[in-house]
């Protein structure tokens, strides 16, 4: 859809901005109004998000002898640490407080894959010996991790009490299948057993929607939807990704990944694709060919230069009619705004290093009505 035409609303969309408690963010009404306009193509300027945290009050570090599995599954402790961070952060610009349910890697977690818990992440090990092994695609319904995920989202929603957003995470089908098989084995499957890959993907896709429906039912029906990276939309929101596709050819991406993306963007009125790193760029044409896909998030990754080094790519995304999410260091905010179309642009700035840098960023944000003070 072109940015020149506002989206036509249907009954599934919010007609009134949700009401949120001002404990952590006092300017919720302006945030919801601006984000709704951004999605609908009616916001003339950019969304600018500047993290403003108190470095003197971080949550205490976890001891080296922490049982990371127990910690990851202790939702009450995890949320209390997150709320501590919220309490020491100022959410004055277009940046909102939100919490995501991240344990494991999406659907692969609910089909028996062993999980290895580490300090900063959870590693998923393969659980499918062959791509054509018999698999009960409904086994997730009674899986202990799935039932725990339901309990986590229910707890998080009740705990948040509209003081901050809550997002669930399922990942993608092809990405999940790669985790279930192991990346190397799965890439061989694409060549040697492509029909089996398609068959399993098509069997899992309805299960993905059933999972999403169950999780959606636990969230407030009148509060829009949250996604990872503190993203919000005024209706059902599909956060799309397939990091393993960095190893796919464009033809393989179109054959194996695009069908699931099409199904998901037609299920959700709002959608964003997480384009992760230089290795994924060769799939941009295929993404731009999906008219229902609203936005693309560019993550350049470590060692891939500065945000300004990718201006040609960012301009190409905007020229393709997609809204653009990008991250940049503080000294690149103004050059990025000068080089890109502000309409349909969302920029998250790295935390400023000193007060003078913060003042400069807030002056820039205020020029675009993004510095919503109390």
Labels describing this entry:
disordered N terminus; 14% strand; 374 residues; 12 helices; 6-stranded parallel sheet
Give an overview in words:
The protein is α/β, with parallel strands linked by helices and 374 residues long. It has one domain (28-367): TIM Barrel, CATH 3.20.20.210. 38% of the residues lie in helices and 14% in strands. It has helices at residues 28-40, 68-73, 75-87, 144-160, 173-181, 183-192, 194-216, 250-267, 284-288, 311-319, 333-339, 355-367; strands at residues 47-49, 52-53, 89-90, 98-100, 115-117, 122-124, 165-167, 225-227, 231-233, 237-240, 270-276, 295-299, 323-328, 345-349. The strands form 5 sheets. Strands 1-14-13-12-11-10 form a 6-stranded parallel sheet, with helices on both faces. A two-stranded antiparallel ribbon has the order 2-3. Helix 11 (333-339) links the parallel strand 13 (323-328) and strand 14 (345-349). It is globular, with a radius of gyration of 21 Å.
Return Rg in Å: 21 Å
Mean pLDDT, as a whole number? 91
Per the CATH scheme, the topology name is: TIM Barrel
Number of strands: 14
* Total domain count: 1
What order do the helices and strands follow? HEEHHEEEEHEHHHEEEHEHEHEHEH
Strand content bin? 5-15%
Overall 3D geometry?
Answer: globular
| CATH structural class | Alpha Beta
Helix content: 25-40%
With strands numbered from the N-terminus, the spatial order across the biggest sheet is 1-14-13-12-11-10
Which blocks of ≥5 consecutive residues have pLDDT under 50? 1-12
Measure the end-to-end span: 35 Å
The CATH architecture can be given as: Alpha-Beta Barrel
Count of separate DSSP helical elements:
12
**Could you give a short account of the major beta sheet?**
6 strands, parallel
